[in-house]
Fold this protein.
Amino acid sequence: MNVNKALPSMLATKLNNLTIPSSSADQDLDFSDVFGPNSSSSTNPNLFTGDPQIIHNRSHSFVGPSPRYTLSRTLPSHHEFDPLSSGEEDDPIKGDKVQEEDEFEVEEKCKPNYKIGPGDFEIMRVIGKGSFGKVFQVRRKDINGDGEGVIGDGIFAMKVMRKDTIIKNNHVDYMKAERDILTKVVHPFIVQLRYSFQTKTKLYLILDFINGGHLFFHLYRQGIFSEDQARVYTTEIVSAVSHLHERGIVHRDLKPENILMDADGHVLLTDFGLAKEIDESSRSNSLCGTTEYMAPEILLSKGHNKNADWWSVGILLYEMLTGKPPFTHSNRKKLQEKIINEKVKLLPRLSGEAHSLLKGLLQKDPSLRLGSGPRGADDIKKHKWFRTINWKKLECRELQPKFKPVVSGEDCTENFDKCWTAMPLDDSPAPTPTAGEHFHGYTYVAPNPWLSSP
């Protein structure tokens, strides 16, 4: 028998048993207790149903923290709007205590009723912290016949969020949206969700660990990027954002802290905590994002859609080429006024093609912005600044960046700030939410790659 021909058949037979129980089996969970009754209509057809209230602060990406607060050199202070911040500090408790909480059953690795939870991951380092939880670098364990943990399955980032803080601040919809969106996107330049699960007190997202650090980290280490270097990153960002828009998803928080770099020098979008699914004909009216990167229509509460992301891409490109965003001010109100009213000042040392692209992306009128037309991202991809780019090869990761971060291994954290990686491996206790608040259907296991192999 030809082994190569038989192998797919053997795998297919075994994979037939890889099913995840229906979430409806969890009869003790009441989805409506947290998310409320479904709404079938809206008083304003131009606004997206369920728009959140105005947000006042915005934390940095969880998948690898921003070094903005700890680098010795003076860095710009960005103004942020955070739907998740509670301002509360956690009391520390050893990380392995979380394993005592109940886990949710999923069928994985051909093991019926296999319970995946915090105990399946060995905590290695802290790589981020916010007021509602932490993110850890973790290593996946295998479970042998005796039920003892054995190291295996690679390195991940484990984002841990406290239910009580999320529910208290009425941000359950943000957390569910982040998880739901991450299950729908698979792209070479977007960080991949591998698992999600919950305990009685916390939510967990298990994502690929990207060991090259933040784009922010490298930008402020180098000062500025050359046009050639910035072009590589911008093309990969445009490719990822285009993928999101094709699926009706707007990121709404594009900034250097939410872009990670892998060991090969490719960049990946992360932190979908403010992302939203918006219909082509709809608008969202929420004030969210980081002020320096927010489009004028968001600040003016005129309603926004995917065009707001292209403004943020323009701000990102400007910052990569000049070392800072085009609009800055220590006073938030004055910063907003500058974004709304002032013209972008383009440096004469930049090429004419770069000037043209920046002018197109940073149009204050979203209907005139590059990428807003019926061809969407194709208008951006065909801009003359990208004329040297083969987009098909790019999306196959065949275009190799010249700059690669210094990475010593899969679990290397040298490109992340030591204020996080030096922290003790503690997790925080959290009370169990009352009145039966649970996040129904939160559990997820990414499809086995064998199923999509040719």
Q: What stands out?
A: Residues 215-395 form a domain with the Transferase(Phosphotransferase); domain 1 fold (CATH 1.10.510.10). The chain has 13 helices and 16 strands.
